[in-house]
Amino acid sequence: MTTPLWKFSFIVPYEAADAFSDALEAAIWPEALSISTLEAEPGSSPLVKTASDWNEVEAHGRWRVEALYDERPDEAALRVLLAAPEGATGAKADNLRIEPLPDADWVAKSLEGLAPVRAGRFFVFGRHDADKVPAACIPIEVEANQAFGTGHHATTAGCLEYISELIDERPPVHALDIGTGTGLLAIALAKATRRAVLASDIDPVAVEVARANAQANGVGPWVTAVTAAGFDHPALAARAPYDLIVANILARPLVRLAPAFGRHLAAGGTLILSGLLGTQENMVTSAMTMQGLRLVSRKPKGDWVTLRMRG
Question: What mean pLDDT is reported for the chain?
């Protein structure tokens, strides 16, 4: 059975996007099914930090606010809703559009967008694709959730491929996953080595998701997930030095953590870095080189790149 949906969208300055999305979310009528904000013109503005040191956005540019409704929303009512944030921020909502989305089974469509991923010896899938798991692989079941990391993004796939190669060469004994998200990389390491893996994330929700995913994949006893910003947790210091550290976060946080990587990585250990664009590669590599780390190889995937370094 299909359900027609309607999309209401407009463009505002980045600084005002939250105020507009909050106004739509708080509205009792028309009541939105979901609200999202995204760059209207990606790449046109500089990256800046948000309230979290781990996230950056394309700021001072134009952002699109989109809301989904299960029936056509009343345009006059929407304009009344927008009047309050317009008055509060001084920003005007431009390019207002109300349009029907193609009639479709949106549950099925969302599952299509999360097709299984093969990366090295790993096969990452959602529950809806459990019947597609091939025999000669290490299966990892991860559902799209409140944390980053389902294997579909180029950065996660690059990390999985490097982990697969490393396991074939020399399985790590002491491994750390910084910015674990869903716990996918830590689970991959635990499944492949059957050894303890420490994982951390600044987001406590992600930590809970990682723990649940580890249990669901049968490696709960091997994966320890803690809430920490960078290396700011006693558990991380207690298990150092590591012969493998994986960090799939963002370029500038990677640069800030460079000294900590140098301190916590064992001599001859491997550091896998991702979450950076190709245009940011030199910046990240230079920061690591200053800590005595050496670039071994790189995996470009589209606009993104994953780096393998050695201590």
Answer: 86
- On the question of a common fold for 6-104 and 147-310, the answer reads no
Residue 259's SS3 state is helix
* Cis previous bond, 241, omega within 30: yes
Distance CA 117, CA 120 (A): 10
Looking at the structure, give the CATH architecture of the domain made up of residues 147-310.
3-Layer(aba) Sandwich (3.40)
Q: Is the pLDDT of residue 171 over 50?
A: yes
- Stretch 241-250: mean pLDDT: 94
The ranges assigned to domains in the chain are 6-104, 147-310
Sequence-distant (≥ 6) Cβ neighbours of residue 156 within 8 angstroms = 119, 149, 150, 184, 185, 248, 274
Mean pLDDT of 162-181: 94
What percentage of residues in the chain have a pLDDT greater than 90? 56
- Tell me which fold the domain 6-104 belongs to: Alpha-Beta Plaits (3.30.70)
Tokens of 259: 């000294």
- More confident site: 205 or 222: 222
User: CB of 249 within 8 A of CB of 178?
Assistant: yes
What is the rounded CA–CA span in Å between residue 139 and residue 160?
Answer: 12
CB contact at 8 A, 265 and 292? no
